[in-house]
Amino acid sequence: MSIDIGIIGLAKSGRTTIFNALTKGKADTGIYTQESTAPHIGIAKIPEPRLKVLADMLNPKRVVPAEARYIDIGASVKGLAEEDKGVSGQTLAQLTNVDALINVVRAFADESIPHIEGSVNLKRDIATIDFELTFSDLTLLERRLERIEVALKEAKQPERQAVLREKDILTKIKTNLEKDIPLSELSLTPDEIRIILNYQFLTAKPILVVVNIGEDQLPQAETLEAELGSYYSTGNRRIIALCGKLEMELAQLDEEAAGGFRAEFGLKESGLDRVIRESYKLLGLISFFTIASGEVRAWPIQNGTSAPKAAGKIHSDMERGFIRAEVVSYDDLAKCGSLAEARKKGLLRHEGKNYTVQDGDVITFLFNV
Question: Where does CATH 3.10.20.30 sit in the chain?
């Protein structure tokens, strides 16, 4: 299972620099005159320290971390929503299909790269992107509501009741969006969520705001995060400050060299690891591990996933033919040092269809199809 995260932001915010840092990519960051219409797409391995411990213990042939796919959207969200833009369908689809969004906001000063608004203003730029996401959703809503009005003229019972129900929900969302209340802040019933699920509204997606600072601002990073976090952080939005240029340069080095440079800058950890960790939290994800055929692998799933559904992340046959799961927690296995010792101590247990997978579970699924 790959996690898809879309990277958005104003021009000259360092959006592609952040993309390169996350994916160890080499997309061109030197073109400032116009926005590219083709998104950059790259894969990043999700850092998972527990995988190394399991690998050292079990000596597998392969170690497979979970992956995140990052999509650097090279155009304005507002522009994509307009009917006369030829790229609207393809690129807007890239946005609507992602699991979460990263909004890169510029905090660094650089006279050679003038800010498109003439000055650095974090709150203004965050508000601009929020407006564009809202604009996109409102455009979608207005089009759908127009089609609903046409459908109501021809609809018969009970279809008419279903269409009216959808109209009421969309009108409610539209009214709130016009008051600058994003979908993520609305309290919707499970039935309402089911009805609008296929729309993939942008203001419903979790957003990680990455404040792109300069090297000279590194000592103020935590203070900046706290100040903005108190204003912007919600259950569906978080704030991180990092230096994209520095992180991109460090991403090209080996771990030992990068660690040395981070120490010189007083950085406790990779800013990119923080981006991924916060994205996990926003998406409500946990990880479980499998050990099979000489391979140790990490799997991201939604917190609260049942054992059969977790098995289905590996293969649909495993969910369909699920019998039981052999489970040991990572902490217990790490203390025991081997599966045999965990089994001997009674820490390897059998769980059935009603078991909810916990973060760090090491699982072997038994199934029959």
Answer: 304-367
